[in-house]
Each structure stands twice: as structure tokens, then as C-alpha cells.
């Protein structure tokens, strides 16, 4: 049943609206927010879901002149200038300013829950064609990707183009200087260390961009018989370990701006330079993005000389934790496998494999932004959960 209001009243000299609910709870709403959030056609454009009210027309000291409640379902406020705003009780209840209500809304919109893992990872697997044609499977894939950080899709065709299909399934892929998709194989005069047969250390892709791609897809088209195993590590799990065992190292890596550079020619010619902290954190000091790629870390280092050695010591400790057997998980992709993972959280690497005159290992790669992925997740969620 939708929530119903039992009583409404103005408080704090009209600056707040208090709503007493039938379930016994109480919510308090600032009047400046209520006026700013008026849903009438003059203040809101329903077809765009967008506010029409201009901020310069908003009185930040506004107070309620009159308030009324109809059938417990609709609250009406008259403002000092005569304008009237109406709010559905259910709409207001969802937007309650209590810590509990805000936590529920955060969980609903952003799915912040994380399942950390180490070498004990049980790699989640879902059939590729299932997520392509079944909304429940696609929803499960994206929810698991958000929570665990990695999902293996199995049974795709072992040919180029499957990632284009996957991009259409979520919305669209992220275009970068390496193209809409890119081919990971041994190439002469490689313009990227991934295009060699050598070992790739743990890294996130593209920290040289101001906004690195949030999600990465790697589709195995051909796999070498010897070597070429993939390795992954939960960067957020390792960050938590580092923060606990060496808070100073964590502070250095989450506050030092590191220079990255990538210069060359591929989809077009490029000269990209950027500064990133190895560990990006939120206001609580919790890691929200890892920006670490040793290959593209620049020789330019824009910090005082005396801070260089402490930085390297901190980075070495972080790197050692990434590479510990306790934290890393190793697996080998088969033709038709598509590994999908959180490029802000999961660092990936590759073991070396023998060089050969012909191509023995071929992966196709692509990126998507988390905004696109989360958009599709929410839309799928609405569709799937409404059927329950």
C-alpha cells in the first residue's frame, strides 16, 4: 500500500513542513526544497522530467503561508506570492531527508553494495546469448558486475563484432583513440604494450584520460596453447588492506597527482596527458576508482623531489599487495568467452606467451561508461521487478 499522511503542519516559523505518517513515522522537509521541487506545469516539464523554475526566481528564505492535506494522499502548499504546489504523499515519502530514507534511495539508484574477493573468487558466469535476449539474465549480469566487479559471458561466436552487439544491448560503447573496438594481438611496432606477447602487470586501462572508461569487455577470439593466462585482482579489496596496514602509504597514493602520457597513432593520431591520483576516494576516504597503469605512467613527475622516494615506497607496497597470491585470481579465456569487468575497481594483467610468426592469440576489446551501464541496469530493473 502506498504511504498515507495523517497530519501536516508548518514548523520553525514556516521554514519546514512536517508530515506525520499513518505508520507512525514523521518527516521534515525544508520549504526552500519544496518550492524548488514544485511539480506544477509552470515549474516542471513532465515530458523531460526537468525543472523549469529558474534559480534566480527562487527565494531561499521562503516560508509556508498555508498547507492542506487531502485524503492522506495529496499535500497542498500555498506560498506567500500566491503560487500553489501539490505533492503526492508517496513522492514525498521517498524523498524523506532522514538518514535511513536517504540510504534506501542511494541503494535503489546506485547499488553501492560490494562483494570483495581475492584468490578465492568464484568467477560469475552467464551465457552470452541469454543476456542478449533475456531481460532477467541481462539484469542479473549488470547487477553482478556492479556488486562483484567481474562477470564472464560464455558462448559468444569466436569472431569480431560480438562486442558491437553487446554495446547495442546496453546502449552504446565508448569511443577512444584506439577505436570503437580494438584488437589485442601481437603486432609489429606495437603502439601499446598489450599488443605484444610479453607479460602485462596489473593495471587499469586508460588512466591517461580525465574520465577513464568505467567498464571493459574482452572477447576471446583465438587463444594460444601455451601461456596467455589472464589475471585479475579486486583493487578496492586491496585498497582496504593497504589503508589498514599502512595508512600513510594510502594517504600518499590517494593525494599525489601522478602524470600519465599516451602518444601515438591508431584510430587517429593522439597526444594525451593527464594527472591522476592512483587511488581516488570519496568524502569518507573510501576508494571509488583506481588509476594505475605502470606502462603509461610518465617520466614527468610534478612533485617536490623529497616526496618522490616516499611515493615510490607507497606504490611498491600497493603493487606487492596486488600481486600477492592471496589477492590475485588467474584464469584462461577460451574462444567465445567475453570477460566484462569494472575498470575502476578490477586491475587486470596477462601472463606472457610464446612469440610466433602467425597470430596465436586474439582478443577484441571495447569500453563502456558506467553512466551507460547503470542507465541500462535501472531500465532493466524497472521492467524485470515490475513483473514480480
Automatic annotation (TrEMBL):
Originating species: Pardalotus punctatus
Top-rank EC class of the record's enzyme: oxidoreductase
Pathway: Amine and polyamine biosynthesis; carnitine biosynthesis
GO molecular function: gamma-butyrobetaine dioxygenase activity; iron ion binding
Listed name of the protein: gamma-butyrobetaine dioxygenase
Protein's UniProt keywords contain Iron: yes
Domain Gamma-butyrobetaine hydroxylase-like N-terminal: 9-92
Family the UniProt entry places it in: Belongs to the gamma-BBH/TMLD family.
Record's catalysed reaction(s): 4-(trimethylamino)butanoate + 2-oxoglutarate + O2 = carnitine + succinate + CO2
Biological role stated in the UniProt entry: Catalyzes the formation of L-carnitine from gamma-butyrobetaine.
PANTHER family: GAMMA-BUTYROBETAINE DIOXYGENASE, GAMMA-BUTYROBETAINE HYDROXYLASE-RELATED
Record keyword NAD present: no
TauD/TfdA-like domain boundaries: 120-367
NCBIfam families: carnitine_bodg
EC number of the protein: 1.14.11.1
Gene3D superfamilies linked: 3.30.2020.30, Clavaminate synthase-like
Amino acid at each position: 500500500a502506498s504511504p498515507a499522511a495523517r497530519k501536516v503542519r508548518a514548523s520553525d516559523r514556516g521554514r519546514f513542513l512536517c508530515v506525520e505518517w499513518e505508520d507512525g513515522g514523521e518527516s521534515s522537509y525544508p520549504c526552500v526544497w519544496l518550492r524548488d521541487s514544485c511539480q506544477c506545469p509552470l515549474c516542471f516539464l513532465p515530458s523531460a522530467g526537468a525543472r523549469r523554475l529558474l534559480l534566480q526566481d527562487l527565494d531561499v528564505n521562503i516560508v509556508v503561508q498555508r498547507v492542506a492535506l487531502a485524503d492522506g494522499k495529496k499535500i497542498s502548499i500555498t506560498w506567500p506570492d500566491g503560487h500553489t504546489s501539490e505533492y503526492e504523499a508517496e513522492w514525498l515519502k521517498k524523498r524523506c531527508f532522514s538518514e535511513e530514507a536517504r540510504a534506501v534511495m542511494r541503494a535503489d539508484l546506485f547499488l553501492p553494495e560490494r562483494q570483495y574477493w581475492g584468490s578465492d573468487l568464484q568467477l560469475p558466469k552467464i551465457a552470452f546469448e541469454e543476456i542478449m535476449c533475456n531481460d532477467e539474465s541481462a539484469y542479473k549480469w549488470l547487477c553482478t558486475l556492479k556488486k562483484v566487479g567481474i562477470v564472464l559471458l560464455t558462448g559468444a561466436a569466436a569472431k569480431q563484432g560480438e562486442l558491437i552487439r553487446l554495446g547495442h544491448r546496453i546502449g552504446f560503447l565508448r569511443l577512444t583513440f584506439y577505436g570503437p573496438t580494438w584488437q589485442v594481438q601481437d603486432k609489429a611496432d606495437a603502439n601499446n604494450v598489450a599488443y605484444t606477447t610479453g607479460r602485462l602487470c596489473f593495471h587499469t586501462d586508460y588512466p591517461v584520460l580525465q574520465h577513464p572508461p568505467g567498464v571493459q569487455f574482452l572477447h576471446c577470439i583465438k587463444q594460444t596453447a601455451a601461456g596467455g593466462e589472464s589475471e585479475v585482482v579486486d583493487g578496492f579489496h586491496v585498497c582496504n588492506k593497504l589503508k589498514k596496514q599502512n595508512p600513510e602509504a594510502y594517504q600518499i597514493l590517494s593525494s599525489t597527482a601522478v602524470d600519465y602520457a599516451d602518444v601515438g597513432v591508431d584510430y587517429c593520431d593522439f597526444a594525451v596527458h593527464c594527472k591522476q591520483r592512483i587511488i581516488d576516494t570519496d568524502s569518507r576516504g573510501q576508494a571509488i576508482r583506481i588509476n594505475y597503469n605502470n606502462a603509461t605512467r610518465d617520466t614527468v613527475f610534478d612533485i617536490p623531489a623529497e616526496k618522490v622516494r616516499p611515493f615510490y615506497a607507497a606504490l611498491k607496497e600497493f603493487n606487492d599487495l596486488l600481486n600477492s597470491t592471496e589477492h590475485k585470481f588467474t584464469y584462461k579465456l577460451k574462444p567465445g568467452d567475453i570477460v566484462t569487468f569494472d575498470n575502476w575497481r578490477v586491475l587486470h594483467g596477462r601472463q606472457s606467451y610464446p612469440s610466433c610468426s602467425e597470430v596465436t592469440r586474439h582478443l577484441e576489446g571495447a569500453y563502456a561508461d558506467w553512466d551507460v551501464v547503470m542507465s541500462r541496469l535501472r531500465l532493466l530493473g524497472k521492467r524485470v521487478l515490475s513483473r514480480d
